[in-house]
Amino acid sequence: MKKAAGLTIVWLAILSTSAFAATPTVWVVPSSLKRVRPMDAAGGEKNALVHAARGEYESFQIAIQAPRSGLTNVNFSISSLVGPRGAVISRENLILYREWYVTVKHHSPTYNGPPNLPITNVNTFPDALIPFRDPDTGMLPLNAEYKAAPFDLRPGYNAVIWIDIFVPRGTPAGSYQGTYTVTAEQGASEGQIDLEVWGFTLPLEPSLKSSFNGCCTTVPGVNEELLRNRIMPDTVGLSRE
């Protein structure tokens, strides 16, 4: 009886230690349009499947959830993608952001229904994208108020990484593979990225007519980011035409 009790205590100690040292839970968000709230349940798919044409940016999301012990010093990295006959899409073409949660204290009312009826009862949204590196310079952002990584994550809470994949013009069509890795002081988790590059190239001139950022003060880098994603700013300098 004493032996059984002793074994039970040992097993409880092992399980307790295992839970305390649990690694990050990671999963691929099913769509770039889906938003993961701070305490949503984790998904089960760890491998990302992406399709893109040459000359196109395509996006996907990787969510991270902290175990009961929480996570400290969390970071995210990604490999280059290797394809047919050794063709490579370098990791410099995979741009990383962390989604920043914004809490809205007073919602806008709807146009229909009772006065001041809020559009939603959800208060916290992933909204801003905080770059790991400045997309223009490729360097770490200097003197940034908000930093993408490293970061800590409270028990049961989520963080989401947004990845833009750019497929350079002239990239051979076919299947490309790579990996992503989430590290923390408590351990690491990883998954696979499968990119299918289609055998055609998007034209340089977009066919969709658009006009953005015309009413506000221009922030450095905004127009460049719009143009990278084939969206037209209200005004464009001669060097960008």
3D architecture notes:
By secondary structure, the protein is mainly beta. The chain has two domains: 19-202, Immunoglobulins (Immunoglobulin-like); 203-241, no CATH class. The chain is 11% helix and 37% strand. It contains two helices and twelve strands; from the N terminus they run αββββββββββββα. It has a five-stranded antiparallel beta sheet with strand order 1-3-10-7-8, with no helix packed on it. It has a five-stranded mixed beta sheet with strand order 2-12-11-4-9, with no helix packed on it. A two-stranded antiparallel sheet has the order 5-6. The longest helix is centred in the first third of the chain and has 19 residues, at 2-20. The protein is globular and about 45 Å long. The termini are far apart. The model is unreliable at 10-21 (pLDDT under 50).
- Count up the domains: 2
The CATH topology label of the largest domain is: Immunoglobulin-like
Largest sheet: 5 strands, antiparallel
Mean pLDDT: 85
Q: Please count the helical segments.
A: 2
Q: SS-based structural class? A: mainly beta
**Could you tell me the number of beta strands?**
12
Helix content: 10-25%
